[in-house]
Design a protein that fits this description.
about 90% helix
Length: about 150
Amino acid sequence: MAAFKFRLATILKLREATQDERRRELAEAYHVDEVLAGREQGIDAQLEHLRQQCRMASRVGTVDVDTLVVAGRHELMLRAQLRDLARQREHVAAEIEQRRERLVEATQAVRALEKLREKQLAQHEEEEQRLADKEMDEVGVRRWRPQEVEA
């Protein structure tokens, strides 16, 4: 019996490598988004801390205006950073979607070749079984004919 050999195995390997690369690219984009989200959380925490400091500075009998002005400037800077991070995350979200679509395309290309390989393997196995059945029939005929001659 001949062993099954998928003629497009090299192309399948290339497509699988492309699929793996697309997965890696998507994972990188998700990682970038996580880093940006972490930065947003850090800035949110800084803003909350700043608000608490302003409340404390305002509660005491004398209000330290300089501290409140500095805190206000710092708050403006933090809010600007949040806006920048939001724009970056929008860009990353678009990039994630593009990379996800490329991964889907690569996965479909791999799956198409896998289906073709499965179909060709099934055909090969059917042909091998047919040849084995034919061989068994010939063996049976050879055994039967000598007995027929003797009779």
